[in-house]
Amino acid sequence: MSVAVATIAVLAVLPGTAMAASAAPGDGTLSVTIGAPDGVPANVLLDGKTALVGLPTVGVSYSATDLGPGYAYEVNDYGQVVGTSGSHAVLWDGATVRDLGTLPAPYDSRSFAVAINNRGQIVGNSDDSQFHTHAFLWRNGMMTDLGTLGGPSAVATAINDFGEVVGYSNTATIAFYHNGIPAYVTHAFLWRNGHMADLGALGSQGSEARDINEFGQLAGILDLAPPQAGIWKNGQWTVLAGLSAGDQTETVAINDFGQVLGTDDSASYSPLLWTAGPTINLATACPGLGKIVMDLNDLDWIVGANQDPSHVPAFGGPGWYDPIICRAGTVTFLPPLPDSADNWPSRMNNLGAVVGYANFEGGAIHAVLWRPSLTK
């Protein structure tokens, strides 16, 4: 198949695909032909903006790689993985594991890396001994404290390729005291170019930002009664309704098409996909996915976790949790690490790679990278 695209910067193609390109004279576009084995159409990721062509109709198989002790929280489109090992934020880059350290004292008790963009910029959080947290941005080998909105703590959750960071922070306003300890009003923030902006809370008691796409749109939560999923775009929040009026909802991710993934946490407890059209109940649209969803990418792939009846470790019976992918209404379990208990996904990149962690008998926890390959 071919498509005309207004760019010539090709970032990556899915494993198992082939690509050819030729310039179209006079119109400033490039014709890109993408094929999987035997000429089956596949996808291509262009100039970091995920201009995608088609959805593979071939199967996808996965392999699991043990990254060693720790938790993996995100993988970028180059396969770089961030998370935590021991008490420090780390970067897994091929065979190299890099300790990113912590912020200076007093926020040097422990650190976590939670997100990485395609420029290798990393965001995370660093704690003091009293569990106050400051968000950080790591770039060019340097860790920068992003500050707060006036209160003692701020937590980063995501970063896009423009270096825009989102999360949530205590403001200077105290909501109430509990046993003499102040509880601060918390608002979503957007940090860019050295400034942390307060995104408000749509008249509610508070807000959180969970994810950001390349167009600066945010998925978050508004502390209404009950709490509601929200999308922040064009400078304002919009509530994302659940399956029934008054349902409690929350978000986990947003892709570059503005689709938001989350859940309806009320009696039905269903995973939802909010789109420009009707809200999609994934319990119906993707049978077998389960109720736990974690991320979606620009291919419309969704990753969650569900009990896998085929996962039977030597020390226990079946039914442990494993990552599960939904593609075009069809689900695929990802393989667990050998002799592990539950395997939990965290995030997925635009080429379908998934990261997370596996629990073992005795309490050991290892970071995991699941890599996809196209099959005939």
Describe this structure in words.
It is a single chain. Helices cover 1% and strands 56% of the residues. With 376 residues, the chain is an all-beta fold. It is globular, with a radius of gyration of 21 Å. A four-stranded antiparallel sheet has the order 6-33-32-31, with no helix packed on it. Strands 7-8-9-10 form a four-stranded antiparallel sheet, with no helix packed on it. The chain has a four-stranded antiparallel sheet with strand order 11-12-13-14, with no helix packed on it. It has three domains: 2-46, no CATH class; 60-145 and 286-376, no CATH class; 159-172 and 190-285, no CATH class.
List keywords for this structure.
single chain, mainly beta, four-stranded antiparallel beta sheet, 33 strands, 1% helix
Please provide a brief summary of the model:
The protein has 376 residues and is an all-beta fold.
